[in-house]
Write a structure and sequence with these properties.
The chain is mostly beta strands. The protein has 3 helices and 26 strands. The protein binds calcium ion.
């Protein structure tokens, strides 16, 4: 028989063990997925570039997007719908008037803006936003529209509603198409791969709002003909590749599984059935590969929460030509700007920039003269000691 004292000790030890177990949950990142091909993740670190930076604009709330124009000016948008112009001489004018019919309020009302690929001729800007609820209804609607930027850059004219689309990011092509990405979270599982909803898709329309005759599902019955590709979670940065004219995107995974993709017509990109990400408790969502599902060119595990994508085309920064720049919003891999050194469609190295700054990078662009502008998010989390205004940085070689 156990002596009372020893018995008490055993109870104490058991309870202490339980408490210890409760304090140290299993590491959700303990079992990273295996890549499908060599070089699909965790590329080696590139040597560090010396850069200098200058804050060119501060005081932004809910920073959303940067857009470069042919004269090297930059448009900066906030969630409220405020758009400011950073002119090449550093002067700033704001706000641009004549916006589409945005709902009033706070948060992400203006989701994204994009310049027409032929802006020099058209002076057209595209908008993705939440519009005010129609008369007699309570729900706001999500729309994509275009407007013509006046020559003095003070207002938009000739606003045209192109359709009711839940746009996240927009990209325009020189042949008159507009790509629109949409969000598709896990709880929307059946809808993300279905062809009857706009959930978790890339959409493609003509810039007059009509449907391109070569869209992959056009002509099938019971589909939304705007759909271009399926199986996406949240592509928060897209570009048209300057050489191939194909759509490239970065995509938020759940916990891990952020992706870089080339988005091609009619392909299935897997989410939410095929992913390198996991649930937030570390449990599996699904396998990482499946027949007929397109593999990402590259993925990150843990997450970096990628937002904003640019391709460096000029040679102002030595060795950067052809690199992709990706913003990172979240901490597991450090809030920073990431440069991906590319060899065709392969990522051969990563360089993490602005790491010491430790700020959420929402968007990044390169102007035609080679300057790089970075948009930092505003943060209002006093408990975490993170209260910052949104800011625009201009990067230059040291
Ligand atoms: Ca995918």
């Amino acid at each position: 028989m156990l002596k009372p004292r020893l018995y008490c000790f055993l109870i104490w030890a058991f309870a202490a063990n339980l408490a210890l177990a409760a304090d140290t949950p299993p590491d959700p990142f303990a079992n990273p997925p295996s890549p499908t091909f060599i070089g699909q993740t965790a590329a080696p670190q590139a040597s560090q570039t010396n850069i200098r930076l200058e804050i060119v604009l501060s005081g932004l709330q809910v920073s959303r997007a940067l857009v470069t124009l042919p004269d090297n000016s930059v448009l900066v948008s906030e969630g409220s719908g405020n758009i400011q112009v950073i002119h090449p001489d550093g002067s700033i004018t704001s706000p641009i008037g004549g916006m589409p019919p945005l709902r009033s309020g706070e948060g992400r009302i203006l989701m994204d803006i994009a310049a027409d690929a032929n802006f020099e001729q058209s002076r057209r800007i595209y908008f993705a936003y939440e519009a005010a609820a129609p008369a007699g209804e309570e729900e706001s609607i999500q729309q994509v529209a275009s407007g013509i930027l006046s020559l003095d850059m003070t207002h938009f004219e000739n606003i045209q509603i192109l359709g009711n689309y839940p746009g996240r990011r927009l990209a325009s092509t020189s042949d008159g198409k507009l790509y629109i990405t949409t969000i598709g979270y896990l709880e929307q599982r059946p809808e993300v791969m279905g062809l009857t909803t706009f959930t978790g898709k890339v959409l493609r329309i003509n810039t007059d709002g009509s449907i391109p005759h070569d869209n992959p599902y056009l002509g099938l019955t019971n589909v939304r003909p705007e759909i271009y590709a399926t199986g996406h979670r949240d592509q928060d940065g897209i570009i048209i590749h300057p050489e191939t004219s194909e759509l490239w995107s970065i995509e938020h995974g759940p916990m891990g599984g952020d992706e870089l993709n080339v988005v091609r017509p009619g392909l299935n990109y897997g989410w939410p059935y095929i992913t390198y990400g996991k649930n937030y408790d570390g449990t599996e969502i699904g396998p990482t590969e499946w027949d007929g599902v397109t593999q990402p060119l590259y993925y990150w595990f843990p997450s970096l929460a990628p937002s904003g994508l640019a391709m460096v085309q000029q040679d102002l920064f030595p060795g950067w030509q052809g690199s992709l720049l990706v913003g990172s919003l979240s901490a597991p891999q450090g809030r920073c700007l990431i440069r991906l050194v590319m060899d065709g469609e392969r990522v051969i190295a990563e360089e993490h920039l602005l790491v010491d700054l430790d700020r959420r990078v929402r968007d990044v662009v390169e102007t035609p003269d080679g300057s790089i502008y970075v948009l930092l998010d505003s943060e209002n989390n006093a408990d975490a000691g993170r209260v910052f205004p949104g800011e625009v940085l201009k990067l230059m070689p040291h």
